[in-house]
UniProtKB/TrEMBL annotation:
Entry-linked Pfam families: NTP_transf_3
Protein name: 4-diphosphocytidyl-2C-methyl-D-erythritol synthase
Domain MobA-like NTP transferase: 27-141
GO terms assigned for molecular function: nucleotidyltransferase activity
Bilayer-spanning residue ranges: 195-214
Upper classification of the organism: Bacteria, Pseudomonadati, Pseudomonadota, Alphaproteobacteria, Sphingomonadales
Length: 270
């Protein structure tokens, strides 16, 4: 198959981040998880996957990663390059879609996706094939069956309660229309009803009356924009556990200790 370009979002939002403050680091992706900067985990997972051709790290401060001994390996890796991002995710992506050096498909994830692994990437890449845009999500029952105390932001639909898994697939330039809409609601990403409303009154009404499933809602959004839009319902509960809060890091470190081959040591590079 065509090699995929992976985009790893490692930018900073306006204002201070509590995880970065607690760790005494200038930006959140450098905050340690089990002794290693969190950005190293998804970076290693992406670079180890056979479908990934290149990894582009998007950040406002690329020099911070080159200067940090624990992340300097990224700056010298032959498959990695840093690019300066805008303040918003959607505006950054819109600036990249038309570049000839970034052929489709594009896979986007975040630096706090510490638990990203081969199985998640296998599923997402397989189910994203052929879509113009795909989004990974986890249904609440999947998460709570394994981690009943984990707290997420949920959107309620007829087919369940769903939380984002920080994995996005852009298979063609048709995705531009949806990303432009994303840009409009980016500041309200935690306010589920505003995001749903932005996709039109039928989608909003269906969600409020619990008549619309997430899969059919995403497909309807795709038809509105003349593209193939797809939900990837992730099998692994860990797909929606990102390092967003102190309690998330505690849970993630517990999960990492339980993974095969885990010895509690930081590794620095692949």
């Amino acid at each position: 198959m065509t090699k995929i370009t992976a985009l790893l979002l490692a930018g900073s939002r306006p204002g201070s981040d509590p995880l970065a403050q607690a760790a005494g680091v200038p930006v959140k992706p450098l905050a340690p998880v089990a002794g290693d900067p969190m950005i190293n985990y998804p970076a290693r997972a992406l670079l180890a996957h056979p479908t990934i051709g290149q990894l582009i790290i998007l950040t406002q401060t690329p020099d911070l990663y080159a200067a940090n001994p624990a992340t300097a390996w990224l700056a010298s890796h032959p498959q990695v390059r840093f690019e300066t991002s805008d303040s918003g995710i959607a505006s950054t992506l819109l600036g990249l879609l038309d570049r000839p050096d970034l052929p489709f498909p594009l896979l986007v994830t975040t630096a706090d996706h510490v638990l990203l692994d081969t199985a998640m990437l296998d599923q997402f890449v397989a189910e994203g094939q052929g879509a113009d845009i795909a989004v990974a999500m986890v249904e609440r029952a999947t998460l709570l069956a394994r981690y009943p105390s984990s707290r997420r932001t949920w959107l309620k639909f007829r087919d369940g309660w769903w939380s984002g898994a920080n994995l996005f697939w852009f298979g063609s330039a048709k995705a531009r229309a949806v990303i432009a809409l994303w840009q409009e609601v980016e500041q309200d990403r935690k306010k589920g009803w505003k995001i749903i409303a932005s996709f039109g009154p039928l989608v909003l009404l269906g969600a409020l009356l619990r008549l619309l499933g997430l899969r059919s809602g995403i497909a309807r959004i795709g038809r509105r924009f003349g593209l193939n839009a797809r939900l990837v319902a992730m099998h692994k509960a860990e797909a929606c556990i990102d390092a967003d809060k102190v309690e998330d890091v505690t849970l993630i470190e517990e999960i990492l200790r339980g993974r095969p081959g885990a010895d509690g040591s930081a590794t620095g590079s692949i």
